[in-house]
Design goal:
ornithine cyclodeaminase, domain 1, alpha/beta, 355 residues, 27% strand
């Protein structure tokens, strides 16, 4: 039987600490050359209205250690809006976002899952794995830019790897950041405060996490202080050149790690691609998280070095690892609907089929 899981059924099903372990295993296997990740592919075309787009997203990868292969797809509409004088790319209306989980031993389709909850968890966990190895072990204060769903898992995931005691959050809409601070304070039991500017959120923080939907930079290098670890999520492409850090912030980073380096050049991601062309950073100075976990690149040099992790792309290995954990938890608890496997499986019998 094929298990079908909706977002609401997966909420609180998988503890963040277990998700972080799963993501770390996936990246470690990738760094060892065992896990496989295909570059993310996206289709965009102008649609419906000025600035609007039809958008299709395709991500796949496999993690042999958990015998999992996953395919994530999205079909949606997006448009560009102005918020507090800044450009934002938003995704309004209904959409389809699915993760299909396959077993590598049997080739069977194990599950079809909504992708949203899985996606926010894997992004937060990936950032936290990087912070576990790059931020100072005594990091206690986080400066958070953004107050949406991605920002929430940045908080919960980082709390699992660092002894944070205070989080300062800024987003352009006052009521959003204040609501976020109140909610996350109640959920986590630590001090989460809304602040009046991005600069106030950054200054005095040990970890800076940008989890926005911005088009233009929100972190300025002149705000950064010795010993900070900076994390950024926006992974723009040549069609939409989004970045969260300005040139000076990238220059000041002594060590830069990314999730998946090939995607930078395939998508012409603005955070690095044009900066490589302008000589602000060199391609050989960018290292992958899998390399960091396997000792193929160094970690933090000292307590004063500024480190930067760019969570630069959705990766199939993240979905393969997370979906497998979610599937196992759901089976244990008897959660989800079921569809007959034979709806999807091709039985060869006496006939020859491709592949």
């Amino acid at each position: 039987m094929v298990l079908v899981l909706k977002n609401e059924q997966m909420e609180n099903l998988l503890p963040m600490s277990e998700e972080i372990e799963a993501i770390e295993q996936a990246f470690r296997e990738l760094g060892e050359g065992k896990a496989m990740n295909a570059p993310r592919a996206r289709l965009r075309t102008p649609w419906k209205e000025e600035g609007g787009q039809y958008y299709f997203n395709n991500i796949m990868g496999l993690v042999p250690g958990v015998k999992s292969m996953a395919l994530r797809i999205d079909s949606s509409f997006s448009k560009e809006v102005q918020v507090a004088g800044s450009k934002r790319r938003v995704y309004p209306g209904d959409f389809i976002g699915l993760v299909m989980l396959f077993d590598m031993d049997t080739c069977e389709l194990l599950a079809i899952m909504d992708d949203h909850h899985i996606s926010t968890m894997r992004v937060g966990a990936t950032s936290a794995v990087a912070s576990k190895y790059l931020s100072r072990k005594d990091a206690k204060v986080m400066g958070l830019l953004g107050s949406g769903e991605q920002a929430k898992t940045q908080v919960t995931a980082h709390l699992a790897v660092r002894p944070l005691t205070k989080i300062k959050v800024y987003s352009p809409t006052t009521e959003n950041r204040e609501r976020f601070a109140k909610q996350m304070s109640a959920e986590t039991g630590i001090e989460v405060v809304a602040v009046e500017s991005a600069e106030e959120a950054v200054q005095g923080s040990d970890i800076v996490s940008a989890a926005t939907n911005t088009v233009d930079p929100v972190v300025q290098g002149k705000w950064l202080e010795d010993g900070m670890h900076v994390t950024s999520l926006v992974g723009g492409d040549g069609f939409l050149p989004r970045k969260e850090l300005d040139d000076e912030a990238v220059k000041r980073a002594g060590l830069i790690v990314v999730g998946y380096k090939p995607q930078i050049f395939i998508d012409k991601q603005a955070e690095f691609h044009d900066r490589i062309e302008r000589g602000i950073v060199k391609a050989e100075d960018l290292h992958e998280l899998g390399e960091l976990l396997n000792g193929k690149c160094r970690g933090r040099k000292d307590s004063k070095e500024i480190t930067f992790f760019k969570n630069n792309t959705g990766m199939g290995i993240q979905f393969a690892a997370t979906a497998r954990k979610m599937y196992e938890k759901a089976r244990e608890k008897g959660i989800g609907a079921e569809l007959p496997l034979d709806l999807f499986m091709t039985r060869r019998g006496d006939k020859t089929y491709s592949p």
